[in-house]
Design a protein that fits this description.
alpha/beta, 5-stranded parallel sheet, 14% strand
Length: 340
C-alpha cells in the first residue's frame, strides 16, 4: 500500500507512524475482509504526514487506505492544489483517491460554512466508498486551539473536552502529535507540503489564536501551555462522558413517554446535582424533539424545578415545557402556538 520510496526512519516519521498504528489497531477488523479507511487530505503537512503513515501502516493492520480531497473553491488555483494532493496520495499508494468539489455558503461565518461543507463532502465520500472511518489530520496544536476557543466562548465542558479521537465516523490519530512533528515528518520523507494561505489570514479567529494568543500565553506563562490545554481536554472529556452516561441511564428509568410528549419527575430532577439535572433536560429534548438546547434555555427550564413559584409554560425553539404537579412535561409546539 505504501510507495516504493522508503525514507530513512527518523524520530518524526516513527512518532507519526506509531500514532497511526495505535489508532488503526483500535478499530475492529473482520477476519474475512479488508475494511477501507480514507485520509482527509488537504496537501498540508498535517494531512500529508497522516497520509504517508497510513499508507505505510494500513496493510499491516489488515486494511485498505484511500484518500479524499475536498476542493473548497475559495482560492484561485484551488483545483490545481487538489489535483496535486491527489497525485501525492497516488504516489504514496493510496487507493481510491477521490476529489470532492464543494460550494461554501455563508451560514455561521466563513470558518463554520467551510467546515460544514467539508464534513458533508467527507461523509458523502465515506458512504460512497464504504469506508469505516475517515482519518483527520488534527494535531495536538489543533486540540489546544479548540480548547482555548471553547474556553473563550464560555461553551462549557462540551467544548472544553475538545475533539474526540474516534467519533465512530472520524478518527484523529495525531491528537497527541505536535504540528512541528508533522512538518518534520514530511521533510524527512521528502514530501513537499502545501501551505494554505488561509492559515496566515488573521481575519480567521483560529489563525489569531495560533499566531498571537497561544504564543503570548507561552511567553507570559511559560512553555507547555499547549500540553496543559490538551490535558484539560482529556480530563473534561472523561468527566463529561461519565456524566452523559449517568444521565442516559437515569433517563431510561425516569422518562415517561406518550403521544403528547415526554415527562420527567420533578422530585428526581431536584434531587440530582445541577450537572445531571441539566443533562436530563437536554437529553429529553434532544431525544424526543431533536432540538439542541442552549445553556440559557436549559437553565430557564431548570427553574421550573429549582425555583418553582407557579410560573406558566416556557417556550423554547420547537418545544413547550410546563410543570404539571410532580412532572416536568415537554411537548412540541403546535402550529397555532408558533403562529401566536
Amino acid at each position: 500500500m505504501h510507495s516504493e520510496r522508503r525514507p530513512r526512519l527518523t524520530p518524526a516519521i516513527a512518532d507519526v507512524r506509531r500514532a497511526v498504528r495505535t489508532a488503526l489497531g483500535s478499530l475492529p477488523v473482520p477476519a474475512d475482509s479488508e475494511p477501507l479507511v480514507l485520509v482527509a487530505l488537504s496537501g498540508g503537512p498535517d494531512s500529508l504526514a497522516l497520509a504517508a503513515a497510513t499508507a505505510f501502516e494500513a496493510t499491516k493492520a489488515g486494511m485498505r487506505a484511500g484518500a479524499v480531497i475536498v476542493n473548497h473553491n475559495l482560492q484561485d488555483g484551488s483545483a490545481d492544489v487538489a489535483a496535486a494532493a491527489a497525485q501525492q496520495a497516488r504516489d504514496l499508494g493510496l487507493d481510491p483517491v477521490d476529489i470532492r468539489s464543494v460550494l461554501v455558503g455563508d451560514a455561521g461565518g466563513p470558518e463554520s460554512a467551510a467546515r460544514d461543507a467539508r464534513y458533508a463532502a467527507l461523509a458523502a465520500a465515506a458512504a460512497e466508498h464504504g469506508a469505516i472511518r475517515v482519518l483527520l489530520g488534527h494535531t495536538l496544536d489543533d486540540q489546544a486551539e479548540t480548547v482555548l476557543l471553547g474556553l473563550a466562548r464560555g461553551s462549557g465542558a462540551g467544548s472544553l473536552k475538545g475533539m474526540a479521537a474516534d467519533t465512530g465516523q472520524y478518527l484523529r490519530p495525531l491528537l497527541a502529535i505536535a504540528r512541528i512533528t508533522t512538518v518534520q515528518c514530511c521533510q524527512d520523507s521528502g514530501i513537499v507540503a502545501w501551505n494554505d494561505p488561509h492559515n496566515l489570514d488573521t481575519s480567521y479567529t483560529r489563525v489569531r489564536v495560533r499566531q498571537t494568543v497561544l504564543p503570548l500565553l507561552e511567553s507570559e506563562l511559560g512553555p507547555g501551555i499547549r500540553d496543559a490545554l490538551v490535558r484539560t481536554a482529556d480530563q473534561a472529556r472523561e468527566d463529561a462522558d461519565a456524566l452523559d452516561h449517568f444521565a442516559e441511564e437515569m433517563a431510561e428509568d425516569l422518562a415517561e413517554i406518550s403521544e403528547a410528549g415526554i415527562s420527567l419527575p420533578v422530585r428526581a430532577l431536584a434531587a440530582n446535582p445541577a450537572a445531571l439535572r441539566q443533562r436530563l433536560i437536554r437529553l429529553a429534548v434532544a431525544s424526543e424533539f431533536h432540538v439542541s438546547l442552549s445553556r440559557t434555555h436549559t437553565l430557564e427550564i431548570a427553574r421550573l424545578v429549582t425555583d418553582w413559584r407557579g410560573q406558566g409554560p416556557i417556550d423554547v425553539p420547537g418545544v413547550r415545557v410546563e410543570r404539571r404537579e410532580n412532572l416536568l412535561h415537554f411537548s412540541a409546539h403546535s402550529e397555532e402556538r408558533d403562529a401566536v
